[in-house]
Amino acid sequence: MGIILIILTLAMGLEYNNKVYQVETKMINKSRDLKFTYFSAKDLQSVIGFEMEEKPLTQRIILKYKTKEISLYPDNPWSEIGEEVVNLPIPPVREKNKVWLPLPLVSEIVDYFVEMQVKIEEVRPQNKRLIISETKRRIKKIVIDAGHGGKDPGAVGPNRVQEKDITLGIAKLTAIALEERLGIECILTRQTDIFVPLGRRARIANQSKSDLFISIHCNADPKRQRQGEGTEIYFLSPAKTNWSRAVEARENASLEYETKEERSEVETILWDLAQTEFLIESNTLSGEMVNCVSNALGSYNRGVKQANFYVLRGVYMPTCLLEVEFISNAKWEKKLQTQDIQLLISEGIVEGVRKFKTWYER
Ligand SMILES: [Zn+2]
Fold this sequence. Notes:
Blueprint: E1 5-16, E2 19-31, E3 34-40, H1 41-48, E4 51-55, E5 60-65, E6 68-72, E7 78-81, E8 84-87, E9 93-95, E10 98-102, H2 103-114, E11 117-124, E12 127-133, E13 141-146, H3 163-182, E14 185-188, H4 198-207, E15 212-219, E16 231-236, H5 242-252, H6 260-267, H7 273-276, H8 279-297, E17 301-307, E18 319-326, H9 330-336, H10 339-360
Parallel strand pairs: 1-12, 13-14, 13-15, 15-18, 16-17
Antiparallel strand pairs: 1-2, 2-3, 3-10, 4-5, 5-6, 6-7, 7-8, 9-10, 11-12, 16-18
The structure holds zinc ion.
């Protein structure tokens, strides 16, 4: 961390009150594999119409709109939004007298000043637009992604049970339960035993304009065959621990089954805009999910983890990836095949969504 490398400046369309403006953006490298898109504070200022004042002595940047005030500090994650002090995952940056704002901060400013929401939409492939609108945040449509499929079996248990079959069973039951119990429309990335490239899964989610993306997997620990136990949930972030890296490598290995063209689709997606807006939401979703699923199963809660999964890259909505129990453990391999256990898991997921929905729509 600490190295700031500016790589390119681009204009992005910003839609506000039915007009489209151009806003300068910059990709800034925070570390080797972590790039974020920043927006020009000046351009945002002229669109929204707030005042901006900089205090050279304290480095404080004051934004004013009517009677409302926000204070920001370059390279400092703490911001004062009205009376509240907020810690945002990515701080603003000042570079040659220009102030750059990351997406989570743009969201906060828009929310506080004009009480609207910020969304990223893909107008055409590779062409994104920032949309400021009044729509309240709602969970109405969810993409349920059954991990693996077709020629990609996923992890294989000691008695040859394949992860792809378990994930499909859980995904279908979850979709039915979400529709019945919460009235949420569900879209499955696959409904049968077919191979679906990772990039296409993200595209299905974005094109359907869904509100959440939940990817279902089962864990495996090839070294400790009979011992692995419990559920862990991941959200997208650079991998932190050796264990997270190992899980990440195993799940990203689905790429090996893809053709050159299918792979290139994923590789062109930089982990930038898509997920930075949703860090807080994805973290919260993962937390609710891991508690609810492990409670439903009455088994070990391995907590929320972070890793860099290709399937979550480029999805413009909060996401999480479930690693439900261990297929490498013969006891769980057997249980995971039963409809009773798959039903329990789907109920845990529904409960996790219900809790997240309450928080998100607050
Ligand atoms: Zn998997």
